[in-house]
Design a protein that fits this description.
Blueprint (H helix, E strand, L loop, with lengths): L33 H17 L7 H13 L15 H12 L7 H18 L5 H17 L5 H12 L7 H8 L4 H6 L6 H15 L10 H16 L8 H19 L10 H13 L39 H5 L1 H18 L2 H7 L2 H4 L3 H5 L3 H10 L26 H26 L2 H4 L3 H4 L13 H7 L3 H15 L3 H4 L15 H22 L3 H17 L9 H9 L8 H16 L5 H8 L16 H4 L33 H6 L3 H11 L20 H17 L1 H4 L3 H13 L3 H22 L13 H12 L3 H5 L5 H11 L4 H6 L2 H14 L5 H14 L3 H4 L2 H14 L5 H24 L2 H6 L2 H14 L4 H17 L2 H4 L2 H19 L4 H15 L12 H14 L3 H11 L11 H16 L13 H18 L5 H9 L1 H15 L9 H7 L5 H16 L5 H26 L1
Helix pairs in contact: 1-2, 2-4, 3-4, 3-5, 4-6, 5-6, 6-9, 9-11, 10-11, 11-19, 12-19, 19-23, 22-23, 23-26, 25-26, 26-28, 28-33, 32-33, 33-36, 35-36, 35-37, 36-39, 39-42, 41-42, 42-44, 42-45, 44-45, 44-47, 45-48, 47-48, 47-50, 48-50, 48-51, 50-51, 50-52, 51-53, 52-53, 52-54, 53-55, 54-55, ...
Pfam families: DUF4042
InterPro entries: ARM-like (IPR011989), ARM-type_fold (IPR016024), DUF4042 (IPR025283), HEAT6 (IPR052107)
Protein name: HEAT repeat-containing protein 6
Length: 1194
């Protein structure tokens, strides 16, 4: 391109007063194709690189070439084909910065404009040298050039430092240090608003960082934080244009957001309250009718002086002279709500306005407030006593557009106010995510109402969600509310309103329950009013967060029923994202505190009951009913079987008998199955036109499968009627090519298998008539195992799918597995054994876990070959580098050793003799090594050690090869009991020692490690803070069946004193949560003391007599009486704890055992001191027995 091709620019005198050069916009002239733009850049860059400081006419050449470069549009969004190498841009800017002296200020301005223009439009990532050169140049320009140039210099600097703050450490002292230029220009005392805005933008860009970049030093972050906060707290200076003030606030909001987004921010003193107060004020910046006195600080309390109505504006608060609105607000609001909803159905302008971008942001108060204009809207917002929260922006009575021409000053001001509100909400979202949840709970009342309808409610997030005229602002407020609700389950768990509230005061639990109800009410109104798909999606997601965290089992029923019916029409919405979010919400409904009685009733309702009711038809139904118009579906789309999809329409249904309703699958389950398998209707979807055979979009199908899994998990009794149909849906998913669909299909199969297993567990007490029949279970698994699941198991390119397929195999009902054909059983075992040697840790973890499940199957556990193969696979996995694999391998090893003990008791010596000694030795050594691993591995490895020590025979224990591993195993258990590991690890170790004590072949009386084992248990039973660990240790001390196992008199006395002391101190704890185990602890300790008495010998009598005859004996007697009288169980002990204690006797049986002990002690031959001790013990037991017999007779 020649120079003549470049348009002539009018001559402009460059001076401090001249306006900065502005390149032409994208809608103006351009130079042709991207190749022309690249050639123009290369030509100008070559000429600039050829220039030298001593060149003649340097100034004129620079002016001309700068103008030519600035006149080009390099924006890749405008023309993505533009390809200018970043290194060419960096070399050009480095070279040019050496050509323009700081004394030539007009050239400095043009160079800064060029830097901003090229870096911003080409998105250049600079090398370190270019960054240093340009930062040095701009910092020097700020020091030496006149003030009139600083706006352009700061703009260039802000572009340079964007995302490069950590690389600019050496310049931060000049910019952000004491008397730094950015602090000077960003100060609220700065009168030049443009300089102030650009300085704040530059500070914000310094703190912006990409993922992985380090944070800036705390001193600079703190200084900038105070500047941003002070800017947000400052009022608009007099004689300042409102637009410029809004731009300054936007820059400060962005800066505060980037400053706080770098990890957890430690707020000092009232900083958090100050930030929240400033952001709350700016959330309503420019909102029509809002005129309140904003506090400077928000405190974590609901104080009455907050947001009081301004006394300087008497037109806003309710007037005593207006009794119709003040005295009867409910009536007026109800009339207004009814009228507005009627108009909402007729107006076609709402939808276009909701979907509009900036057009909606600039709406006039007349448009928002209906015929009464801005004053009516103002009254709605400033009168918190008005109970009607129906969105005022929906009460439109005119189809006219803006009252003033588009682009006018007033419309532009509304647009800028809208952007400030958006920025404040974005910043608030960052604060909510960055502050500890527990700290934030104190400020909930400032953003979420805690008073019911009819009471004064301050301005909050709901005011924005329901009343802000801009859909963009409303959409920004919803993620903030979602972030506050996310993870709030522990806080909301206190909410309760099932009981009548006290009249004297309102409990916190009732206030919190009121907040939950207000959340439901306001979000339901927003759901009715919104037409923008993006905002509608946010509303539904927010409802899903609420449902997932609220304690509905503590609230009055009805909230979920209303929401359930209200959501049904939205499953047919045009927009894919809306449909996905609706399914997410239904997933939350069927998972929250499942099974919830209210949800069970909703699932049992016939499919036409709620859809035919008038209350569920929303104003958007005309836009939603795209699957079936006028209640008539396309004949070509109607299947022979009753269409599941048509069940969600408003067409009438034939009445059903009660028996038919009970056998019908839940509507939600039918809907999800149809979404996964049925073709879409002929009409196009928002994600693109679809053919007649096209299925639902993948996100919808995945979410539907997820909801089906949740429903099966929480409400299996309702879903089991469609067991085979659900299995067919899963099989169809597995035949597809999409790995995500296949993955969700296998997860659904796993949930079905788990549900069947839970039904057949004896402890769940499910009547046989309510279970899935075994014939149906067999049919289900036969079809699954002969179908496409094999392909998923062999899908090496998709490890998550293989992992899920392994989990599915592990969810087979043991009774059903036993009835499968031998070749099917062999296929399952062979596949799992092979997958344990795969490299991928996900697959290996799942396969090892599945083997750990199979080893417990009665039909497999006695198969020595299977046990040996499984043991070898587990031992190999225990040496894996992945902690997850080792943890599951240890769990499976624990299950395998449980099986060894069961077989030892059921099969006998034959099984022990068939199992290889070498394999047992390897298992013992591997468990010893694993006991030194992380706690996740250690907790099950110590369980395996206890089982192995119980299983080993005397011939094995006496072999030299077992001597050292045996001693290492016991010492590993002793070390774990005394360690600072997690409590689960310690109580497993105590249980393991007790398990080892059951082996009569262990030389407890003579082994060197025996003393350490008893000593560790005695120490834990008296000193451990965790009562469950004490219970396990006391149970272990009561297991040795012979007196010789306890060793000499000193060790026996030590065990007795430890148990007696532990019983005396069984209620001493500072942890309230431990009290629930105190009864179980006393039960176990009492049983252990009676066991010691039952095995005691004459040499033990002096010590026992002294203990029982003294003050300690009185305490022991009191607890033993309670133990002998209490019913079977003993406190809140779990089944495992009861098994460990070995006590499931009735009071009569316990007394009978005490009588046997007394008879045996009387027959002991004891003389001298032993005789006196024996008399004291016998007297104690006779007195105890007499007292118990008298109490039992009563």
């Amino acid at each position: 391109m020649s120079r003549s091709d470049v348009p002539d620019f009018p001559p402009v005198a460059l001076s401090a007063e001249a306006a900065p050069f502005t390149p032409l916009g994208t809608d103006s002239w351009r130079l042709g194709s991207s190749a022309d733009v690249e050639k123009q850049f290369s030509r100008c860059a070559a000429k600039l690189r050829a220039l030298r400081p001593e060149s003649g006419q340097l100034k004129e050449e620079l002016n001309l070439l700068f103008d030519q470069l600035l006149s080009e549009n390099y924006n890749k969004t405008f023309d993505p084909t533009i390809n200018i190498p970043p290194e060419d841009v960096c070399n050009l800017l480095k070279h040019v910065s050496g050509l323009v002296p700081l004394s030539q200020e007009h050239l400095v301005v043009k160079l800064c404009q060029l830097v901003h223009h090229l870096l911003n439009q080409l998105k250049v990532i600079m090398d370190e040298r270019t960054l240093n050169v340009l930062v040095n140049y701009t910092v020097d320009a700020l020091k030496e050039c006149s003030t009139w140039t600083h706006s352009d210099v700061l703009l260039a600097l802000s572009t340079i430092v964007y995302g490069n703050g950590p690389q600019c450490q050496q310049h931060l002292s000049d910019l952000l240090g004491e008397d730094g230029v950015l602090l000077l220009y960003s100060s609220p005392s700065q009168s030049n608003m443009e300089l102030r805005r650009v300085a704040l933008t530059c500070m914000a860009n310094i703190f912006f960082r990409f993922p992985g970049q380090p944070l800036l030093e705390d001193q600079y972050r703190s200084v900038s934080f105070r500047v941003f906060l002070k800017t947000l707290q400052s009022t608009k200076p007099p004689n300042t244009d409102e637009l410029f003030y809004c731009m300054v606030i936007q820059a400060a909001l962005k800066g505060l957001q980037t400053c706080l987004s770098g990890g957890k921010w430690k707020f000092v003193g009232e900083e958090l309250g100050s930030v929240l107060a400033a952001l709350k004020r700016l959330m309503f910046q420019g909102t029509p009718g809002v005129s309140v006195e904003w506090p400077a600080v928000l405190y974590p309390a609901n104080l009455p002086q907050y947001e009081g109505t301004s006394a300087s504006k008497p037109v806003e608060p309710p007037k005593p002279s207006e009794p119709k609105e003040a005295a009867v607000p409910g009536k007026a609001s109800a009339n207004k709500k009814k009228k507005s909803r009627g108009k909402g159905k007729k107006s076609s302008n709402d939808e276009s306005r909701g979907d509009d971008g900036e057009k909606g942001d600039g709406e006039s108060p007349q448009k928002a407030g209906g015929r009464e204009g801005g004053r009516r809207e103002g009254e709605c917002l400033s009168k918190p006593s008005d109970p009607s929260l129906y969105p005022s922006w929906k009460t439109t009575s005119s189809d006219s557009e803006f009252s003033d021409p588009e682009g006018s000053a007033q419309g532009k001001l509304r647009l800028y106010h809208c952007r400030v509100r958006q920025g404040a909400l974005h910043c608030l979202l960052t604060v909510v995510k960055g502050v500890e949840k527990r700290t934030l709970y104190g400020y909930w009342s400032s953003f979420i109402p805690d008073s019911p309808i009819g009471r004064p409610t301050p301005l909050n997030l709901f005011t924005i969600i329901l009343k802000d005229p801009s859909p963009k602002v409303r959409a920004c407020a919803l993620p903030v509310l979602s972030a506050m609700l996310d993870g709030s389950r522990q806080f909301l768990a206190v909410a309760e309103d099932t009981a009548s509230p006290r009249t004297s005061y309102t409990p916190f639990s009732f206030s919190l329950a009121t907040s939950v109800r207000e959340l439901h009410r306001a979000l339901s109104l927003a759901l009715l009013a919104e037409t923008s798909p993006q905002t509608l999606t946010q509303v539904i997601k927010c409802l899903a967060y609420l449902v997932a965290n609220a304690p509905y089992h503590r609230l009055r029923p009805g909230l979920l029923s209303t929401l359930w019916k209200q959501m049904r029409p939205y499953v047919r919405h045009r927009d894919v994202n809306v449909r996905v979010s609706v399914l997410t919400l239904y997933g939350a409904l069927v998972t929250t505190q499942a099974p919830l009685p209210e949800v069970q009733l909703l699932l049992r309702q016939p499919e036409s009951s709620s859809s035919s009711s008038g209350g569920s038809f929303t104003p958007q139904d005309s836009a939603l009913s795209w699957r079936q118009r006028d209640g008539v579906s396309s004949p070509s789309r109607t299947p022979v079987k009753s269409s599941i999809r048509s069940s969600s329409t408003h067409s009438p249904h034939a009445p059903r008998t009660p028996s038919e309703e009970e056998s019908t699958a839940p509507w939600l389950l039918q809907l999800c199955m149809s979404l996964v398998t049925q073709p879409r209707e002929d009409q196009s979807d928002s994600d693109g036109a679809g053919s007649g055979t096209a299925l639902e979009p993948s996100p919808v199908r995945l979410e539907a499968l997820q909801v089906m899994s949740y429903l099966v998990r929480g409400y299996f009794s309702l879903a089991q009627a469609c067991l085979c149909e659900i299995g067919q849906v899963s099989a169809r998913c597995l035949w597809e090519m999409d790995p995500s669909i296949q993955l969700h299909g296998t997860k659904l199969l796993e949930e079905l298998g788990t549900g069947i297993i839970l039904q057949y567990r004896a402890e769940n007490n499910v009547p046989e008539s309510s279970r899935v029949p075994m014939s149906q279970v067999m049919l289900f698994w036969s079809e699954v195992l002969s179908g496409p699941l094999n392909g998923a198991l062999q899908s090496e390119q998709h490890p998550p799918l293989q992992k899920s397929a392994c989990d599915t195999l592990s969810s087979i009902l043991p009774q059903a597995f036993a009835q499968l054909p031998d070749k099917t059983q062999l296929m399952c075992i062979t596949v799992l054994l092979g997958l344990t040697y795969r490299e991928n840790y996900l697959v290996k973890t799942a396969a090892v876990r599945a083997l750990g499940v199979y080893i417990l199957f009665p039909c497999l556990r006695e198969d020595v070959m299977f046990v040996a193969d499984t043991a070898n696979a587990i031992l190999a996995a225990l040496d894996d580098h992945s902690t997850n694999v080792r943890a599951k391998a240890a769990w499976s090893l624990g299950n395998l050793t449980d099986t060894l003990v069961v077989n030892m008791e059921s099969v006998g010596v034959d099984f022990q003799e068939e199992l290889s000694d070498m394999l047992l030795l390897k298992m013992l050594q591997a468990a010893n090594r694993a006991s030194a691993d992380k706690d996740r591995v250690k907790s099950n490895s110590v369980r395996a050690l206890g089982n192995l020590l119980h299983f080993l025979r005397e011939t094995q224990l006496t072999r030299s090869a077992f001597q050292q591993p045996l001693e290492d195993a016991v010492r590993a258990l002793v070390k774990t009991v005394q360690s600072e590991a997690t409590m689960k690890v310690r109580w497993n170790a105590c249980y393991a020692l007790g398990n080892a004590f059951r082996n009569p072949a262990l030389p407890l009386d003579s082994a060197s490690w025996s003393c350490d084992a008893f000593s560790s248990l005695c120490n834990v039973v008296t000193s451990c803070k965790n009562f469950k660990v004490r219970i396990k240790s006391a149970a272990a001390l009561a297991i040795p069946a012979k007196r010789a196992c306890y060793g000499d008199v000193a060790r026996f006395s030590c065990v007795w004193r430890s148990l007696a002391t532990a019983l005396e101190n069984s209620e001493d704890t500072n942890d309230f949560l431990e009290y629930r185990y105190s009864a179980s602890l006393r039960h176990t300790l009492s049983q252990a003391l009676l066991h010691l008495l039952s095995v005691s010998e004459p040499q033990d009598m002096p010590g026992l007599g002294a203990s029982l005859a003294g003050e300690e004996g009185g305490v022991i007697k009191e607890h033993l009486i309670k133990y002998l009288r209490e019913e079977e169980g003993g406190g809140e002990a779990t089944e495992g704890e009861k098994d460990a204690v070995g006590d499931s006797f009735t009071p009569q049986q316990r007394v009978g055992g005490l009588q046997q002990t007394l008879i045996r002690l009387k027959e002991l031959q004891a003389e001298g001191e032993e005789g006196r001790g024996k008399e004291e013990v016998v007297d104690f037991l006779e007195d105890l027995l007499k007292t118990c017999e008298e109490l039992l007779r009563v």
